[in-house]
Each structure stands twice: as C-alpha cells, then as structure tokens.
UniProtKB/TrEMBL annotation:
Taxonomy of the source species: Bacteria, Bacillati, Actinomycetota, Actinomycetes, Mycobacteriales
Protein name per Swiss-Prot or TrEMBL: Diacylglycerol kinase
GO cellular component, one term: plasma membrane
PANTHER family given in the database record: LIPID KINASE YEGS, SPHINGOSINE KINASE
Gene Ontology BP terms: phospholipid biosynthetic process
Keywords: ATP-binding, Kinase, Lipid biosynthesis, Lipid metabolism, Nucleotide-binding, Phospholipid biosynthesis, Phospholipid metabolism, Transferase
SUPFAM superfamilies: NAD kinase/diacylglycerol kinase-like (SSF111331)
Molecular-function annotations in GO: ATP binding; ATP-dependent diacylglycerol kinase activity
Keyword Lyase: no
Family to which this protein belongs: Belongs to the diacylglycerol/lipid kinase family.
A UniProt-annotated Pfam family: DAGK_cat
Biological source species: Dietzia natronolimnaea
Cross-referenced Gene3D superfamilies: 2.60.200.40, Probable inorganic polyphosphate/atp-NAD kinase, domain 1 (3.40.50.10330)
Length: 310
C-alpha cells in the first residue's frame, strides 16, 4: 500500500453531506464533524445537493477551486460519488461514516461511532494513494468506484437493501439476503479477463454471485476478497458457481471471516480488466446501481487518495 504524507497543511475542507444517510442521522453527524474541524481552525464549506448529480457538480467545483480536502459524510455510495470528482486530482478524501454498510470506512480504519474521532483523522491523518475501479457499460458512460463491483445474487441483495426503509446498518444486508436467496438462480456468465494481454482468458460458466474488488469487504463487512490489496493495480475476483442452496446457506457465514475462499464452487483470481456479460443481471458498485450487464471493468492504479489514520 502506498502511503504518502500530505505535502500541505489542510486549511479548507469541503464537506459533502448526505442528510438522509444513516436513517436520517446524516445531518446531525455532519454537524458534529464540522464543529470538530472548525475547532482546529479549519474553514468548512458544506455541500448539499438536492440530488446525486447536483452533489457531484458541487464536489467537482470544490476540487477545481483548490479545496485542501473533500470530506464525505455518508455511506459508501456517497464516497463513490466523491471519487468521481477527486480521481487523479491530488485532493484527498476524508470519510465521516454515516451509511448502512460503511465498508470503505472500515477498510481505511476510520472510527465508525464517533464523528469527532473521524474528523480527527482528517486533521492529523496521512494521505494514502490507492487504486480505483472504472466500470463502463456497453454504449454508456464510465463510472468510478472505490471498493467492490458485484453482479448476481449480491447485486440483487444490494438493490433490495436500497429499497428498504426498516432496520439500520449491516442488518439490512442480512434481511435482504434472506429475502433474495430462496428464489435467485445462477445465470450463464461470460467473463473475458485481461483482453489484449498475454494472460487473456474467456470463462463461460453459471454464476450465482460475483465480486470484482479493490478493497476487501462489501455488504456491511462481508470479507468477499480477504486478500485484496488496494494499491496493487489488480482486482481480486471472487465468483460462486452453481451450488446447492443448503450448502451455500451453511457456508454463507464464512464470507464474514473470508474463509469461503478455497471452498468447492468458489473461484478466485486476479486481473486488471474484465468484461462481464450475463442476461438479466445488474451491476452494482460501492452499494449503488451501475447498469445492467454487459459492463467492462478496469483498474485505475493510483487514481484515489484517502485520508487515513497516521
């Protein structure tokens, strides 16, 4: 992992806020974090878009204006939105966790329960350069992501989670999995890995769920890619083929510890790019919808910059 000490003192912060995050707690969490940052003498400008595109436009403008850090108060989806504005800019992203899964905050060691402690990382932490992923639907616009792109049962669960209004935090993923699992069936996938490179390979197989990971976890701390290195220039890929429902249910808990790797029916590999195609399957990245397949995914080495504990 590439750790880069910040070459400038942070004086101005743009805080991108999702007021609805955390079941409506996002606004209160943002206020506490902003107060902490101001107590250090930082100038904090709040960015609150009426919708995702407006929030992205505000973030891009803040980066263009030369803000010292772009701080996100929200969940993984809000961080994903921020990297669209931040990539390759040299402006670091700080995270104030306020989402459902908060997998990116966990990955970067950000305190989950105290906005003040998370704000302290923005002030006293270091900037770490990491990889990002880019997903491009056929005929569509590219979309950057910071953690995991998934397609299959896991993306169907993500869709269900985003539509739920009950429960908080990772319990939503548990309930959504219980709802989707009994009726979801494997789909015929065609995956072309590292097209145009010496190791190019096309795999055609039935897939129940699949993940293409920059970081280790998704779905509220499920360790789908336990060995992923966020700065090695590669995706850690994990996909599950046709497997009996009782066997999958029995082993499901092992995803939380990462010990599913090596089980019969679980395939892992690494790649720089992959084109994924399957009927009636939607790709999700960082917890939000990308597009129906086919989608081409590639690693952007060193494109991201995050503030992490020093």
């Amino acid at each position: 992992m590439s750790a880069t000490p910040s070459d400038r003192r942070i004086r101005t912060v743009a805080m991108l806020v999702n007021p609805a995050a955390g079941g409506g707690r996002g606004e209160r969490i943002a206020e506490r974090a902003a107060a902490r940052l101001r107590s250090y003498g930082l100038e904090v400008v709040s960015l609150r878009g009426a919708h995702a595109q407006e929030s992205l436009d505000l973030a891009r403008q803040a980066v263009a204006d030369g803000v010292d850090a772009l701080v996100v108060c929200g969940g993984d989806g809000m961080v994903s939105l921020a990297v669209q504005a931040q990539a390759f800019s040299g402006v670091p992203i700080g995270i104030i966790p306020a989402g459902t899964g908060n997998d990116l905050a966990r990955e970067y060691g950000i305190p989950l329960t105290s906005p003040e402690d998370a704000a302290d990382v923005v002030v006293a932490g270091r900037a770490e350069q990491v990889d990002l992923g880019q997903a491009t639907p056929d005929g569509g616009e590219p979309r950057l992501f910071a953690s995991v792109l998934c397609a299959g049962l896991d993306s169907a669960v993500n869709r269900r989670v985003n539509e739920m209004s009950i429960l908080r935090g990772p319990l939503r993923y548990v309930l959504a999995s219980a709802i989707e699992f009994p009726t979801y069936r494997p789909r015929p996938f065609r995956m072309t890995f590292d097209a145009g490179e010496p190791g190019e390979e096309t795999v055609e197989t039935e897939v129940l769920l699949s993940a293409f990971a920059i970081t280790r976890t998704y779905g509220g701390d499920m360790r789908i890619a336990p060995d992923a290195d966020r700065s090695d220039g590669l995706f850690d890929v994990c996909y599950v083929g046709r497997i009996s429902k009782p066997r999958l249910a029995w082993h499901f808990r092992r995803i939380y510890s990462g010990t599913h790797v090596g089980l019969r029916g679980v395939t892992t590999r690494r790649c720089r790019t992959v084109r994924i195609d399957a009927p009636e399957v939607e790709a999700f990245a960082d917890g939000d919808a990308v597009a129906p397949l086919p989608v081409t995914v590639e690693v952007l080495p060193g494109a991201g910059l995050f503030l992490v504990p020093g």
